[in-house]
Amino acid sequence: xxxxxxxxxxxxxxxxxxxxxxxxxxxxxxxxxxxxxxxxxxxxxxxxxxxxxxxxxxxxxxxxxxxxxxxxxxxxxxxxxxxxxxxxxxxxxxxxxxxxxxxxxxxxxxxxxxxxxxxxxxxxxxxxxxxxxxxxxxxxxxxxxxxxxxxxxxxxxxxxxxxxxxxxxxxxxxxxxxxxxxxxxxxxxxxxxxxxxxxxxxxxxxxxxxxxxxxxxxxxxxxxxxxxxxxxxxxxxxxxxxxxxxxxxxxxxxxxxxxxxxxxxxxxxxxxxxxxxxxxxxxxxx
Length: 286
Known about the structure:
Layout: H1 4-13, H2 16-19, H3 25-39, H4 48-68, H5 70-85, H6 91-121, H7 125-147, H8 151-170, H9 175-188, H10 191-210, H11 218-227, H12 235-257, H13 261-279, H14 282-285
């Protein structure tokens, strides 16, 4: 996974569904350039020059994102709404929407790589040491939360988290849907272990690059880490990820099939609300 610095930029520019969690998308979007830099304070100490550079680059990227990317998100949301309205929530259709979403995220990652390169290259040795320690703490915390607990508890916790997310889109799930969510979580098994091991592997690769951040090879190495991180996945995680995506698509297909007319209307209304919030953003009208 990317560093928090990269995640801050990516969050500020992120894909529609990430921002859709905000009840006031326009307000949240317009203020991310002020909110995000301070979230880095719990990760490493940025000096004034670095904060100013991050703030400046966020403003530039936000303007680019709104002008060039958000219109495509509206089209994507329309395709999702059509899938639901036409009862075409199929594995094939979901695969296509996933490809489109991944391409959108890829465009954002490509756009911000030069800024991330400049920001990361300018870090002091002390900041790099802080990053390395933060990575150790990150893995330790996730290991305790997601791996060092009995597998049945992992499965139940994962199912509970997913059910909470789905309630926001379907309304309260019925008994058959809740059982399907539990079966989904069981099918993922011990995938938390592969996910965290892969996360640690990525962090190690970034630290190797950071230790040579003054070399000409730094930017292309960082581009690979940010734009083509799947090329660095461990074989175990690659297999687990394929299973995770397949299980997620199967879950969504079944949940729609098991949904009531009221739930499908709830989903349509939720999607329409998200689309409306995006279409009313001032930066699209400027």
